[in-house]
Amino acid sequence: MSFGAVLVVVGGFLLGGAWSIWRADHDTKGRTGPQVLFAVVLLVAALLATASGILRLI
User: Is residue 45 a contact partner of residue 14, using CB atoms and an 8 Å limit?
Assistant: First the structure.
C-alpha cells in the first residue's frame, strides 16, 4: 500500500472523528466552545491529509 493511500485512509478516520465530535452535543447546553474547536481542527487535518494523499497518488 502506498503512502498516498495511507494518507487518504487517515483523512477518512479524522473526518469520522470530526463528525463524531460534532454530533456529540449535550442535551441542555448544546455544543461547547472547545468541542467546536476540536471538531474544526480535526476537519482541517482530515482535509489536509486527504488532499496530500490524493496528490501523492497522482
Answer: yes
**By the 8 A CB rule, do 15 and 39 touch?**
no
Q: Calculate ∠ Cα 11-16-23, nearest 5°.
A: 145
At 24-53, the pLDDT tens digits run: 877 777 788 888 899 999 999 999 999 999
What residues contact residue 14 under an 8 Å CB cut-off, 6+ apart? 42, 43, 45, 46, 49
CA dihedral 18, 53, 8, 2 (to 10 degrees): -150
Predicted TM-score (pTM) of the model is: 0.84
How is the chain split into domains, by residue range? 1-55
C-alpha cell at 22: 460534532
